[in-house]
Amino acid sequence: MLKCPKCNEKLIKINKSYQCKNNHNFDISKSGHVNFTLKNKKNSGDNELMVKARSKFLEEDYYDFMRQFVANKLSENQVLVDAGCGQGYYTKAFSKKVKECYGLDLSKEAIIHASKKDIDALYMVASLFEMPFFDESIDCVTSIFVPLGKDEIQRILKPNGTWIVVGPGPKHCWELKEHLYEVPYENKLPEDTQPGFELVSRECISNKAFVEDVWSLLEMTPYRYKTSKQALEKLQQSEGFEVTFEFIVSEWRKV
Question: Second label for 84, Cα 20 to 30 Å away, from 6, 44, 105, 130?
């Protein structure tokens, strides 16, 4: 299943590491994750503070209804890759539904957090655009609020494999936008076509919940960096409000 990122030979688990026949070695950390990156970059992906902020919000389970919706699309005979898994909030629910589960992210801090919370999946530090899997070896890939490395996903998926993509619906976080902008805008709908894939289903799901810590919600969104200082200060004074959480869940089949 796993291939060596240095020479593309098969990796085998031997004691506390993964090794290939060319003696390339990738240690399994104390928390259980493996680092498959070859480039030595200190600040790739979310840093420790960003991971804590995202975890604080996600673990309130505002997004749990979407997590369960996606989990119910999985089956027990699948090998799954959660591409861009972050802290593993979604992955730890998915890993209980499938035969094998891999969580992959470029953020080492996020992967450390994920691997400490979930022993059912193998978490790895790796790029979405250079995943350590053989061609056509994976049954299903999930991409939730992450860049879509379509070519790499198409490479690793088996024929007729499933790709589940989740992004924001038109009204996602609408009330937050009303607090931040004079004229709030709806999110664009995703494309209806993906070369090499057939759209099997597309569903819009939503839920409303009162959010007390709206600042942690803001940290989960790109609006944090697209908002005036005055609007941010106003939001910091808020005691919370009801928020719409709306997601577009698209299921694609590799053709």
Answer: 6
